[in-house]
Amino acid sequence: MQWKTISLLVCLYGVIKEFRPATPFLTPFLVSDAKNLSIETVYSDIYPFWTYSYLICLIPILALTDLLRYKPLVIVEAIGLCLTWALLVWAQGVQLMQLMQIVFGLASAAEIAFSSYLFAVVDVKQYRRVTSWTKTSVLIGKLFAFALAQFLVSWLDAPYLLLNQITFIATIIALFVALTLPTVPKSRPDVVQNVEEAQPKTTYDRKKRKSASSTYLSTMRGRFLIYKENALVLKWSLSYALISCAMYQIYNYIQPLWIEIDSVSKAENGLIEFINTALGAVISFGVQFVKLDGSSRLGDFFLFSSASILGVVTIVLSLTSSLWIAYGMYVMAVFIYHALSPISSTIIASQLEKSAYGFVFGANSLFALIIQTVITFTVVDKNYFELKMQQQFLIYASIFFLTSLIPMICSILKPVQLIHECPTESAILEDL
């Protein structure tokens, strides 16, 4: 199957799996008569389970994504989405809603297979293009979903349950599409390939079973060294992980913030998410024509300015008492993130071997989730500080500002690293 055909199929899956009209109105649905939960219960007792589940599930998925060649975990994601909305449609009570968030955490963790799938089947020259396509496909699915959601709620006064029923049907279709994806052909890591080539076939056959696990562990350790050996991967991975961590929290808790600011006015969540997604789709598609050198001063400035603006926007979100200002700041934050996401992914992927995509992107997500879990456990969970929503957003703003310092720190450390790598005078004399 040609790479363009595979790309089209993957993008189709991306569109359908993200067609979730229930998403913009998830919190209003949970606090409505259909589920009869309080807003405090939703964001203190239910939503934190997604973060915990995501972190726990990501650890084995991180190790298995490249090993299983992506497709099985894409199917796991689709099944997880089906179960999530089955619980939302038919289940009742706090415990089952917590289970819903746990299953959704599994689906979210398995998404790294979808993000990495095309990198494993296309040439490196096509990375910018396929990154743009997959990001755009996801946003197109959201675009149609959010437009439909706002139309049904505002014009037809449809119940929130209907939005969840439509989403459930879409996840079933996405599962069937996932099953049709071609299996990624094996592209063994260089470490394993070198072992095989260095030994006669008979010798290798005798040692194959014994060395398989140790070779795999050695390969995993070698992949961790990517961060040590490639400063560009480290800089952009760390920055993207921190920004993603804060954005995940904003995505999770923006609806409760809107309700706290104004619980009386008619919700325009679907309209705002529609605008968000339309802008995101345009910018994600346009990114394929942008060539940004991640190691250049322009790349550093882009990273610094993006993180700084996100910090300012989040502070305004935490302080405003106007719902429409909150809507506007949220749109701006998501717009910047949509620009940053594909650019970061392309820069990181361009530095990696094909066998390492799932691992590196998964490791970045894992790091983001560890920080996110600590934040959720300390500032959101009712067993600890349980800060007010506006106070939580100040924490997220501080993460953005911290991230903006990374390019400057790397610029300062780079000359120091070069000095250490230069041969000393005594070493030169010894060579002579």
TrEMBL record:
- Give TM segment ranges: 45-65, 72-90, 102-124, 136-156, 162-181, 231-251, 271-289, 301-319, 325-349, 356-380, 392-413
Per UniProt, the keywords (alphabetical) are: Membrane, Transmembrane, Transmembrane helix
Q: Which domain of life is it from?
A: Eukaryota
Task: Return the Pfam families for the record.
Answer: Folate_carrier
- Please provide, alphabetically and separated by semicolons, the GO molecular function terms listed in this UniProt record: vitamin transmembrane transporter activity
The entry's cellular-component GO terms read: plasma membrane
Q: Which family does it belong to?
A: Belongs to the reduced folate carrier (RFC) transporter (TC 2.A.48) family.
Instruction: State what protein this is by name.
Output: Uncharacterized protein
Which species is listed as the source? Mesorhabditis belari
